[in-house]
Amino acid sequence: MKKTILGFFLLFLAIQFSHAQDEAAKKEIIELSKTKWQWMADKDADKLAELFDDKSVFVHMGGSWGKEREVNIIRSGGIWYKKADIHEVSVEIIDNTAILLNRITLIAEVGGNEVSNPFEVTEVYIKKADGWKLGSLSFTKLMTPGGQ
Question: Cys bridge to 142: 6, 7, 75, 147, which one at CB 3.0-4.6 A?
Answer without folding.
Answer: 147
